[in-house]
Amino acid sequence: MALGIGTEPTAGSGAMPGGSLPGTARSRPRAVRLPRSPKILAGLAMLAFFLLWSIIGPFVAPYSPNNIGLNSPVPLPPSAAHWLGTTNIQQDVFSQLLVGGGAMLLVAVVAGVIATALSVIVGVTAGYLGGLADDLLSMLANIFLVMPALPLLVILFGFLGKSGSNDVFLIGFIISITGWAWGARVLRAQTLSLRNRDYVDSARIIGERAWRIIFAEILPNLTPIVASSFLFTVLYAVGTYSAMAFLGMVTLPPNWSWGSMLFQAATNNAELSGYWWWYIPPGLLIALLGTSLVLLNFGIDEFINPRLRAAGLSRRTGSRRQARALRSQQFALTPVLIEAAGAAATGPAPTGGSVRAGGPA
Amino acid sequence: MRVIARRLFFYAVTAAIAVTIDFFIPRLIPGNPVQAILSKIQGQLPSKATIHALDLQFGVNTTASLWSQYTHYWNNVLHGNLGVSTMSYPDSVGSLIRAALPYTLGLVGVATLISFVLGTAIGAIVAWKRGSWLDNLLPVVTFFQAAPYFFLAFVAVNLFAIKLGWFPSERASNVADFPAFTWTYISDVLYHAILPALTIVIASAAGWIVGMRNVMVTTMDEDYVLIAAAKGLSKRRVIWYAARNAILPSVSGFSLAIGFIVSGSLLTEIVFSYPGLGNLLLQAVSNNDYQLMQGLFLIITFAVLAANLIADFVYVFLDPRTRQEA
C-alpha cells in the first residue's frame, strides 16, 4: 500500500490552526468547520458506508463464508444464487466480503488508537523536553521509521503462531508498534515550534506546571495533527493487516478478511484463470476504504495548510485571471492561516481568496 | 560531511538493533519455537538429535548464558552465517537469499527510481497548474495511493498478460533459458521485469505525486518564485527553481516511503511468482522456516538502510545548507 509522505506540517511550513491565539480558542468553543470540504464529506460518507458494511455484513450474509458446496470443480461466475460468484470450493464470495470487513476495521482502529497514543506521548515529550530526552526519543522514532515493517511483522507473527493470529487486539497492538513513529516525528516537530510561542512562555512564567502546559496549551493546538496521524495509522494498519493476510499469516476459516480472500485467490491462480469476481471485489474494497481515509487526511492537510486548498479557486471564481489575482494577493499573506484564523474567531481575517476556497478540488 | 557521518552512525545503531531484535524475538515470545516446529513435523517422531539441534538453533534448553549466546549470534551474523533453511534443507539461508537478492534489488531499485522521478515531475506540474483540469487527477491518484500493490498486480497480470498477452505473467525469465551474459537472456529478463516494475511504479508514484504537489504548492508562494517570474524568466526556469526547493522534503521523506515501497514490492513479486525476496518470504511463511524469515528480516533491513544512506547523499548534494556546517 502506497502512502504519501504528504506535507509534514513542521515548524518550517509555518501555519497552524489558531496557533497564535489559543486563549481565545479555549475560552469559546471553536466551531468545527471541517465538513465543508468535499474531500472530507466524501471521505466521511465512504467511511460511514464501510462501518455500516462491517457491522451489518455478518448478519445479512446470505451464506456462511465457510460453507462448502460441491456442485462444481471450478469457481462459478456471478449468478442469481451467488451474486458475486463462488470460489474454487464453492464458497460464496459476496458472503465472504460481507463478513470480511469487521475484523480488519477493528484491528485497524485498535492499532490506530494505540499508535496515536504512543506517538503523542513520545512526540510531545520529546518536543517539549528537548535536550537529551529529545535526542534519544527522536532516535527511537527514527529507528522504527527506517526499519521495514513487513519482514519484522512476519517474524513476530511467525513466532506467535496460530494463537496470535486469532487475537484481534494482539494483532492491532503489534501493528501499532511498527506504526507509531511517523506520527511521533510530526508531533515532535510541531511541539518544538509551539514550545517557544509567547503564550506558552507566559504560561511558564506565571508558574504553570509542565503537565498543565502540555495538556491545556500545547495539545489542543496539535488536534488536527493528532487526527491526521490517527487516520494515517488506521490506513497503515488496513494495508498491513491485508498484507499479513495476503501472506497467509492469518488463519482461515475463522478470520475472514479481504486480504485473506486475495491470498486464496492468489494461491488458486485466480488472476491467471480470469476469475475476476474473486479478486476484484475484495481488492477494490480495500482500495476504497483506503481512499476514504486518504481523502479525510487530505481534508485535514488542507485545514492545516490552506494553500493546498486554493486548487478550487479558479473554478469558483470563474476566470483564471481572477484566480491569479487572488493568488498574487496571497503572496503578501503567506504565513497567515486564513480559514483557521477565521474559525478561531481571531483578529481581522485577511480577505484573501481562500476564505471562499473550501471549494472543489 | 558531518551530516553523513552522523547518519552512518545512526544506521549502524539501527542495524545493530535489527540484529538484536532478530536474536531476541524467538527467545522472548511466549511458547517454545522448537515445540512449534515439532508440532508441524507430522507423522514422523523427532529423534533426540533433531530436538537437540533445534534447541541449539533457537537457544532453548541451553546452558550457555544469554550473553554468550548473543555474542555467538553476532559472530555468526558478521560472518554471513544466517543459519540453515529448514524449508530447503541443507541449503543455507545465506545461499537462498543470495540467489534471490539480485532480482529484488534490480526490480525494486529501478522501479523506485522511475516512480520517484516520474512522480515528482507530475507532482510539480500538477501543483504549477493548480486550478486547471489537472486537479482532477488527484482523486485518481488518491485511489492508487490507497490500493494495495498486490491488488494492482492482480489486475495488471489479468489485463496485460492474460487478456492482451503483451507480457509474460510470471517468473523472471523463460524456464528453458540458462543464465548467461547473452543478449537473448538479458532481454528476456528485462521483458519479464516490465510488468512487475510497471505495477510498482504505478502504485508508488501516487505517494510522490501527492507529496511533491503539496510542497510545491507552498513553495510557489515564496517570494523568490514571484521574483523569478517578475524578472521575466522563462516559465520552465521558474518551475525549475521552485521544484528544486520543493523536492527536498520528498528526498528526506524517502526513509518513510522506501519501507512501504519495499513491503509492497515484496507482495507484488508474489503475484508475479518473481524469484525475489518476496517469494522467498512467502515460502518461508508457508513452510514455517523461521531461520529464513529471520535472515530475510536482516537482509531487507540492511538493504533499506543502504537505500536510505543513498538518499542522504542525494540530500547533501541537493541542499548546500547541509554542507555548510562541515
User: What percentage of the residues of chain A does DSSP assign to strands (E)?
Assistant: under 5%
Structural class of chain B: mainly alpha
Order of helix and strand elements from N to C terminus of chain B: HHHHHHHHHHHHHH
Principal-axes shape call of chain A: elongated
- Helix content percent band of chain A: 55-70%
Radius of gyration computed on alpha carbons of chain A:
24 Å
Chain pair sharing the greatest interface = A-B, 79 and 86 residues
CA radius of gyration of chain B: 24 Å
The general outline of chain B is globular
The major β-sheet of chain A equals: none
> Which stretches of chain A are poorly predicted, pLDDT < 50 over at least 5 residues?
1-28, 311-323, 325-361
Question: How many individual β-strands of chain A?
Answer: 0
What class do helices, strands and sheet pairing of chain A give? mainly alpha
Please summarize the sheet with the most strands of chain B: none
Tally of separate helices of chain B: 14
Number of helical elements of chain A: 16
Description:
The complex is a heterodimer of chains A (361) and B (326). Chain A is an all-alpha fold. Chain A is 66% helix and 0% strand. In chain A, helix 4 runs antiparallel to helix 5, helix 10 runs parallel beside helix 11 and helix 10 runs antiparallel to helix 13. The N terminus and C terminus of chain A are likely disordered. The model of chain B has no long low-confidence stretch (mean pLDDT 83). With 326 residues, chain B is mainly alpha-helical. In chain B, helix 5 packs across helix 8, helix 7 crosses helix 11 and helix 8 crosses helix 10. Chain B contains 14 helices and no strands. Chain B is globular, with a radius of gyration of 24 Å. Chains A and B meet through helix 5, helix 6, helix 10, helix 11 and helix 12 of A and helix 1, helix 6, helix 7, helix 8 and helix 11 of B.
